[in-house]
DNA sequence: CGAGGTGTTGAGATTTGTCAACCTACGTGG
DNA sequence: CCACGTAGGTTGACAAATCTCAACACCTCG
């Protein structure tokens, strides 16, 4: 049920994604090449950007895994999303001048970067690029809407089901198994994202396992009964 | 704790808001005048736009009150925001091609409209306008973030306190009383927005009233002890 | 091999939801 | 202008979901 940036491969030429993927695109229009900044490697726990950082570039995850989170004045923390290879990161700053969230690597990761100021100029001359930027932003907003729906009108077990199905879909769209994957984030991070307590999330994993819907071993998850999981999104299980 | 479009008055000239406010701005640059569409009046319950509608124009509330809501495939409903005079509406479509939510008038209301396609062209020639559009979008995203925080990491009584303080701030920023106002939405709509059941929201109103923090009579609310209300955002009351 | 972070589980408290009754305000039509 | 119907709002009693606190197991990494 979650939409995420970067599901479908882009058509031809020098799309936003091509530019960010970097390495493989040696010969683009000059304006585009100018945008490209050196890629960056992060260790687990390192921050790609933090709340309030000036918005300078947008990123694509080339390898690894990230979470984004917010911390409010009272120290309340909220994980707002998870990002895997192929996902764009930092779009939240696209509309303004600074980032509203922070992005933290959940494992050793590589990101491609594009300088936003230059990208904006390029997009003025290139309507396709401009449209792509807008489309990515639209996906970001759609993601927000879905998160609000999840947090505002689902009970705990529905939220976890939605989360697992979303992960499954995203792994599948990248050519990995839809039924078996490794969740890089901790239970606590999942719980925060789902608006639950850590223990509640853990219990729900166990309960799904007991019902034979999934198999769990730490971060390794296997979806045994995908329809059963989907059913838990709707009525009472 | 909520950010909303349209807090501060805009500086000089023909800003986005001026254009939308309409009537008072007879002599703008031609490109801008072209964008302006006839205003619209809606009766209570009428929809300004609905989910999936092509994104054609953005709106400003000139008079009245709106809610936006989403309905997902399973019929789950979620109110995503409330909009009063001065607020921009329909920005969620700005990034894409269609609206992801629907907007419904909570009372007889008037809106100003700008044709987006023309507006986009105008913004290409006018960097200030372009920046304004981006700033509005940024506010929209900030609002989403704050809603996620509210839904994901606050308990019921904190959510209601946050809601009331937000309303208070927004009324105040429009020159109305910060301590006494009429909530145009029903308890059910407030509850949906806060991710609660109607009865829970109602009880929380009563409980705040019993504690002498607010006075309530139907939709009329008076904040008696604003600091007390603010205190309920943090620790246990 | 030890330490600390991570994950699981239990028991009980607390919060929130559910169902149901009833009250109130408001608009409509007689 | 009143009467009635209906949507909106409140409250109670109870059920269920979720949280809290606590103990302990596991796993990874240095």
Number of strands of chain A: 11
What is the H/E string of chain A? HHEEEEEEEEHHHEHHEEH
The oligomerization state is homodimer
Mean pLDDT of chain A: 87
**Major beta sheet, strand line-up of chain A:** 1-8-3-6
Strand content of chain A: 15-25%
The radius of gyration computed from the alpha-carbon positions of chain A, rounded to a whole number of angstroms, is: 18 Å
By DSSP (H or I, 4+ residues per run), the number of helices of chain A equals 8
Molecular shape of chain A: globular
Separation of termini of chain A? Answer: 18 Å
Characterize the main sheet of chain A. 4 strands, antiparallel
Largest interface: A-B, 39 and 37 residues
pLDDT < 50 stretches of chain A: 5-12, 23-28
Helix coverage percent of residues of chain A?
25-40%
Helix/strand-derived category of chain A reads alpha+beta
Give an overview in words.
The structure is a homodimer of 237-residue chains. Chain A is of the alpha+beta class and 237 residues long. Chain A is 40% helix and 24% strand. Chain A contains eight helices and eleven strands. Chain A has helices at residues 16-21, 30-35, 116-125, 127-153, 156-173, 187-194, 198-210, 226-231; strands spanning 36-42, 47-49, 57-63, 65-71, 77-84, 88-89, 102-105, 109-115, 180-182, 214-217, 220-223. In chain A, the strands form three sheets. A four-stranded antiparallel sheet of chain A has the order 1-8-3-6. A four-stranded antiparallel sheet of chain A has the order 2-7-4-5. The first copy, chain A, has a three-stranded antiparallel sheet with strand order 9-11-10. The longest helix of chain A has 27 residues, at 127-153. Mean pLDDT of chain A is 87; it is low at 5-12 and 23-28. Chains A and B meet through β5, α4 and α6 of A and β5, α4 and α6 of B. The first copy, chain A, binds a DNA duplex (30 and 30 nucleotides) through residues 155-157, 186-188, 196-200, 202-203, 205-206, 218.
């Amino acid at each position: 049920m979650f939409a995420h940036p970067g599901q479908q491969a882009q058509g031809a030429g020098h799309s936003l994604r091509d530019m960010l993927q970097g390495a493989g695109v040696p010969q683009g229009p000059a304006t585009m090449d100018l945008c490209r900044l050196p890629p960056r490697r992060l260790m687990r726990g390192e921050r790609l950007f933090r709340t309030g950082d000036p918005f300078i570039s947008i990123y694509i995850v080339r390898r690894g895994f990230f979470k984004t989170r917010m911390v409010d004045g009272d120290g309340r923390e909220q994980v707002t999303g998870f990002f895997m290879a192929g996902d764009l990161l930092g779009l939240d700053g696209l509309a303004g001048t600074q980032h509203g969230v922070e992005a933290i690597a959940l494992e050793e990761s590589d990101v491609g970067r594009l300088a936003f100021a230059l990208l904006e100029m390029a997009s003025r001359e290139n309507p396709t690029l401009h449209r792509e930027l807008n489309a990515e932003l639209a996906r970001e907003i759609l993601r927000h809407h879905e998160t609000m729906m999840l947090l505002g009108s689902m009970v705990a077990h529905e939220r976890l089901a939605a989360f697992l199905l979303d992960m499954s879909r995203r792994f599948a769209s990248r050519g990995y198994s839809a039924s078996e994957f490794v969740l890089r984030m901790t239970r606590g991070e999942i719980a925060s994202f789902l608006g639950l307590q850590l223990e509640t999330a853990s219990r729900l994993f166990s309960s799904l396992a007991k019902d034979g819907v999934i198999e769990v071993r730490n971060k390794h998850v296997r979806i045994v009964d995908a329809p059963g999981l989907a059913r838990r999104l709707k009525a009472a299980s």
